[in-house]
Amino acid sequence: MTIKKDLSDLPVSTPAEAEGWPPIPLEDQLATPIMEFWMEHRPNHREKAIPGTRFRGSDAGSCARALGYIDQNEPVTNPPTWADYYRMDLGTLVHNQVQAMAEQVWGDHVQVEVVTDYRPDINGSGHGDMAVRIVFDAPGDDGIVVIRRIHVEIKTVNGFKFRNMIGAGKAPAKGPGMSHVLQASLNARHDACDEMRLMYFSMENTGKYRQDGEDPHGMGLFTAEWAFNRTEIERFATLEAERVGDVFDQVDAGTFPDRNVLMDDGSIVTIEQPLRGLWVRHEDGFIVDNGKTWQCDYCRYRDRCIDDGPGQVPIPPDPSPE
Ligand code: SF4
What we know:
- The protein has 322 residues and is an alpha+beta fold.
- The protein has a domain at 43-63 and 75-254: Lambda Exonuclease, Chain A.
- Helices cover 30% and strands 24% of the residues.
- It has helices spanning 31-41, 64-71, 82-106, 159-166, 178-190, 230-252, 302-308; strands at residues 55-56, 110-117, 124-136, 146-157, 195-202, 223-229, 255-256, 260-262, 268-273, 278-283, 286-292, 313-314.
- The strands form three sheets. Strands 1, 2, 3, 4, 5 and 6 form a six-stranded mixed sheet that branches.
- Helix 2 crosses helix 6 and helix 5 packs across helix 6.
- Iron/sulfur cluster is lined by residues 63, 65-66, 259, 271, 274, 295-296, 299, 301-302, 305.
């Protein structure tokens, strides 16, 4: 074949023993225009399920200060990177696949992306992932056919978190994340569900493998589920409704709330160092406990929060009043 053009100046990946085998520069990668297109066209997942409502269900469990900034539509100081969006969208792919398969499995008995109105509890709305209607065909002794409506929230997590949640190491199982429980509870309560499930998928196979024949397909390596009854749904939904209501009261009175965050045990702690996500728990004026939360690492307002400082802070006047 005749060589029509000298292409020897194009980047190559020839391994060089002394230098290892690094990838070609980002600007030469074919993935770069694909990612540019992806980021430009990915859907905006931050729209409210019911336009005009104040609180968005997937913000459940967020730190009180962050909820204040979101409510007042303050400018984002720490937007997600492409890496963040890439990870989020991988989760969305799994999420969408599970929903599509559920529709195949249950047909008319499943509703996906159920729009849920939280009013009058909270001026807010959300998208419940799935509501499954289970009909027990055989009537009971009283001749009544039982129908249960189960709310399902689908979540994806990294392998490390998944192992902690199911107790794959030496520590006891930590269970589902509190923010997920709160979000699901609000959706389940306002969709009048009898039961709620949190269905988790790990982004890597890392969980528990049972060799006793109980899990022949290795499902436990990547999926786990928790169930909640109506009493638990009410308890968690009330907890979050009151917390968000308190945030709105403070904002309406002209202040952004303190950096309070709800822990997995349901207690409230105060974040003292947003840069590192360090929190402390005070009792009678003494620090009795401390730790680190993941929330600050993912917060879109971290620089603003650091600038504003601790405690309740006044909301600055709107720079462009009518
Ligand atoms: S940086 Fe941390 S403390 Fe500050 S608003 Fe965000 S989550 Fe809350």
